[in-house]
Protein 1
Amino acid sequence: MSENRGLFSLDTAQAYLAAEPPVQTAQLSRRLWTASCGVYRTLFIEADSGVIAIDTFGTPGRARAYARAVQAAVPGKSIHTVIYSHDHLDHSGFAADLAAGAEIIADEVCAKVVKLRGAEGQRQPTRVLSGEQNAIAIDGVDLLLLNPGPTHGSGNLAVYFAEEKLLFSSDTVLPNACYGLMPDYHLRNFVSLMRGFLALQWDVFVPGRYQLSDRAGFSRGCDFIEAVQEQCQRAFVEFVPIWAYEPMQAYVGDKLRERFGDLEGFEQHIGQIAIRVVHHYLMGGWGLEDTPRPAVLLADTVKL
Ligand SMILES: [Zn+2]
């Protein structure tokens, strides 16, 4: 059997792509469910006649396991709509395997990246949104889709549920320190844009990984990233060799351990986070994505 490959070129990747790990689901409200397959987490919504799934998980096998979990949670209704939280294959790469005929909703920048990327299994969006805020109704469900600006990946859409006082935003603020803040975090505006979500009324935060959080956990996650940003700037002043892993791990780790050392994964990840963040200040970011208007990158060159 040959799986959709994403960008993998090695045949040996088939074993990884085909594996179907268990997917756990939990009901959050009358219509809202969360699904987790190990590290990754997402949401799906029971609509009047079918199911709206956010994201697909990151392999064909995981997408199939997700579809089965949805079927078990909401018997008799199939996934008719998929919302891409952002372009990354580990979240939205395999709609072809999750729900082949579903409508795919995504932000315009995400859609353009998906089109240019041409990854096998990542379906092109069929409904493209633009702007900071889109209130849409799908099959009896009112959704508010928010893209405040460049936070993570391309065309990151957060989903706000006023009725449940719940916010979903994938790969942004985590309830721990278990992410290395790879180049796909757009640090220039990240914390201020994420803090902007606190203006909405919500009590539950669903990240794209790990466990659920709340407003206090979300605020602390913003504080943590901001504190790393501050210490990384101080590292220049102290003439820490900022390109080397061990000195940066030691410098930023020592500065932040007292305040944030209780965060799960702190010791294992603070070095990588520091290396990532310090290069933001060294180099100025990863091009147009780290400016307030990343859409100009693809505005005239990619037509959907
Ligand atoms: Zn991502």
Protein 2
Amino acid sequence: MGKIEGIKIQNYGVLKNIVLGKTRTKQSEKALGNLIAIIGPSGSGKSTLADAFGFIADCLEIGVEAACDANNRGGFERLISQGATEPVSFEMYYRESSNTRPITYELEIDLDKTGRPYVKSERLRQRVGQYGWPRSFMYLQEGSGYAFEGNDDGGQNDDGSIIGKKVDVQLSDLRRPGIVTLGAMKQYNRIEKFLDFLRSWYLCYFSPDAARRIQTAAPQAYLDRIGSNINNVAQYMYRENKREFEKILQEIQSKLPGIEKIEPQKFENGQMMLRFYEKDFKEPFYSQRMSDGALKLFAYYLLLHEKNPRQLVFIEEPENGLYHHYLGELAEEMKREVGSGFSKQLFITTHSPFFVNALGPDDVWVLMKDMKGYSTIKRASEFHFVKELAEEGVSVGDMWYSKYFESLED
Ligand SMILES: Nc1ncnc2c1ncn2[C@@H]1O[C@H](COP(=O)(O)OP(=O)(O)O)[C@@H](O)[C@H]1O
Ligand SMILES: [Mg+2]
């Protein structure tokens, strides 16, 4: 469980300095909701934002040096904002549930003396009490510093005084974030939990072609990044809870255009395939033959119904390959599924006013380039005309389509 109430990104490509939601230093801002849509013209930084999340996830998985090269990032020199003199840095404001105190995670990545990317500094803080000042429970600079054991209030105050059990830490591998090393140890409870949260992120790069590949028989709990195991996930759901899975299928089939029924079929070798019955045809189709749009919608609905949902999901432009009329419904479904708790948060970049029309002005963020060519971001609700128009019943997508969000001035 957990979600990000705010994030600050600095010097990551076109994102020289942006903040979404509430952070440690911006306490008066409204926290991010559970469904966040990011809109903006081409080149405004939407994909860069999605990739920033992917980059953080990659840093944990493969280390910062490899992460700089992964996913066509082209190395540190390419991905750091042009003209930046400070490190690439991230600050996340995280909360596990409504009755836990927020945690701030800061991560700075820079080049070392030999020109290789490394973790320059890393810090975890947690607020004390309801309005207290945060205490650092992990602070590493150039790989050395301290961490606090346990799951309580322990940490170091800004004046240097400490509560709890402080342990000196010296990391041997500066390419790997300290939270990965320390989070693997039971005594660093809080770090472990936070790391679990980061590791549960899902960055979706769904590719219908990948989803059409013949898949092995093994059931798998989670859809992979490109959706190449869509049948395995369906198989898993079928195995775990047949009744529930059939309910999901019924729900999905009612949303897929022209599809009358979806049925799992088990083969002797243990493999399961899905049969899609289309309206005008007697014989079913298998998922290999389904249209891009139908496969995509199917993948999204499966994703929304995961048994132990991944806590943060980022989807880029879900509208690609989908008929625009399904988008409103998809957005509604997403809104319903993420709910208002701490179990799931969904970030979406989109060009579709139909999708955005289903959302409120607090959940839509507008990215734009400033005079210097870097991105700026603003909540739709912060544009002065929005409240008035919303009261008149105009939807956010329609405002956008009518070019209301073209200038930063408001
Ligand atoms: N290192 C960098 N510093 C500054 N801007 C960059 C850097 N790398 C790429 N860009 C710019 O970032 C933009 C890429 O934006 P992108 O995230 O793909 O936008 P969108 O997905 O909204 O179309 C391009 O305009 C590109 O010129
Ligand atoms: Mg893009």
